[in-house]
Design brief:
Elements (H helix, E strand, L loop, with lengths): L1 E5 L4 H16 L3 E7 L3 H5 L4 E5 L3 H6 L1 H10 L3 H27 L4 E5 L3 H11 L3 E5 L22 H29 L7 H10 L2 E3 L16 E3 L15 H8 L5 E3 L9 H14 L4 E4 L14 E4 L4 H4 L5 E4 L3 H10 L3 E3 L6 H10 L14 H13 L1 H15 L3 H13 L3
Length: 420
Amino acid sequence: MKITVFAAGSRGDIQPCLVLCKGLQQAGYAVRLAAPEDFADFTRQFGVDFYPLRGDVQKIMASDTGRKFMEKGGANPIRSIRAMRTMLGPVVMQMVEDAYAACRDAQALICQGVLAGFGKSIAEVLNIPILDIEPTPLLPTRAFPAPAWPIQRNLGGWHNYFSGVAMLRVVWMWYQPYVNDFRKRFGLSPYSSSDFQRILKSTPMLSAYSPGIIPHPSDWPEHFHVTGYLFPDNANTWQPSAELTAFLESGEPPVYIGFGSMAGNEPEQLARLVVEALAVCHQRGLLLTGWGGLRADWVPKNVFVVDSAPHSWLFPRMAAVVHHGGAGTTAEGLRAGVPTVIVPFAFDQSFWGARVHAMDLGSQPVPKKSLTAERLAQAIETAITNPDIKRRAKACGEAIRNEDGVGNAVKVIKQYLGKP
């Protein structure tokens, strides 16, 4: 059986889909990943067939427009609609046309949940079955507030469910004109926001996060499967530089600080703030620049700067990890079993920050809009010195490392699509 997996976004969005592709391939399926063309080299490392989609999402988010969005509008759901359309408008139809081409010889489609409007339309045109995959919960539930909802406090079931409905409407508004333009081309009736929620709820879902972090809500359908995180094979062949090795061996474990694509509009200023925070709390630090452009042109001897390194290698060697709270980075931090400090910028990051804090796996999140060196230093110190946080983080890491998210996901897919 030939399966196409359709994904877009940052590395945190693409990597779980790529890991799933590898697992399906090892199970005997013929699998192709359709993802933005800038992930070609990354995909090649996994030995998975790749179909490039036009449109570099990472380049868009790293542009001046993308940075301003992260700095000012990313945390506001209403503002995000116009901003997302402005950023994605020039490329989204090209990406969907390419995704459709990548599925023409497929016998099934697996699609990211946020792109379900496109995925369901492609599956309808080609008359093939579809499953969805999500790194962060999408379906409304009474159990917790929706990711990206501005209020990340549990104010009760009705509030939580309403927040989920509202955020699904926002996500739908990002893509509505483009989904319906694609459907019109093939003579299909247009979708509404209620249709988007309906197709999402009715399609089997691979919820790619740990049931220990987000148990299956009682008001979700049984065909929503919380599989566990989808991590790459633990056999990590990456080798650090001699300089990085020397730094790690020269003192106590440092604090990792990196914000991925979320460095904001002034990465130099953010880097200076980070270095100051480390000085305030008297901690060594490892600063990962990431593709967000975070830079530190001058750092003291107790801070090491690296352009890139696998989180799976770095995080277990840290005293704590400080990051933006993307789903993938959060998962790696929890798996490492070290305390977490989340500095949310936008989207689902406040949700993961609230979840980590509520489970006593890290300190209270420090939103980017209110970030100061003193607040960051206090959060780092709490994460490192609180014995309950350290104990619970270690136990959580052990539990997650014992899960088999890829194996569970492959079993679910066999259930719906049959054996290869």
